[in-house]
Amino acid sequence: MPKKVSIEEYEDMVIEAAIYKEAVDDFVDLAKLDDVAKMLSVFYATTGLAGEAGEVANKVKKILRDNRGVIDDEIRQKVLGELGGVAWYLTAVSAEFDLSLTDVLEYNFNQIKDRQERDVLHGDGDNR
């Protein structure tokens, strides 16, 4: 049976397990200014992508809640706008990693075709 924990125990466990803090401290202590600028650019673009994807999800959620599951032209336009944001930030993240949108789409296309050929579209994990 799983152990019952208090909120304080959980908080203590999270603080103890937060190994990223040491990596951040090392980065701050050792990084060159160019590395810091690059990391901030990657961070900005990536969190922008996550935010825009969240906006798409929120619009879709509201189709059910506010529009009884009906997709109309007004909703379509709202989703289109948010998908434009996703495309912008996807392109920005790709560029931060010196990848083109073509690189990303070709990689994904070939990955999906390979999974289709091996009949492993079902399931989960990157290495199916």
Describe the protein.
The protein is mostly helical and 128 residues long. The protein has two domains: 7-97, Four Helix Bundle (Hemerythrin (Met), subunit A); 98-128. It is built from five helices and no strands. The chain has helices at residues 7-17, 20-30, 33-67, 73-96, 101-117. The longest helix has 35 residues, at 33-67.
Search tags:
mainly alpha, 128 residues, Four Helix Bundle (Hemerythrin (Met), subunit A)
Brief overview, please?
The chain is mostly helical and 128 residues long.
Secondary-structure blueprint:
Blueprint: H1 7-17, H2 20-30, H3 33-67, H4 73-96, H5 101-117
Helix pairs in contact: 3-4
Tell me the total number of β-strands.
0
Shape designation: extended
As a whole number of angstroms, the C-alpha radius of gyration is 21 Å
- Euclidean distance between termini CA atoms: 32 Å
Element order: H for helix, E for strand: HHHHH
- Classification by helices and strands: mainly alpha
**Rounded mean pLDDT score:** 95
Task: Tell me the name of the CATH class of the largest domain.
Answer: Mainly Alpha
Oligomer: single chain
Biggest β-sheet strands, sense, barrel:
none
CATH architectural arrangement of the largest domain: Up-down Bundle
The CATH topology of the largest domain turns out to be: Four Helix Bundle (Hemerythrin (Met), subunit A)
Give the percentage of residues in beta strands.
Answer: under 5%
Unreliable parts: none
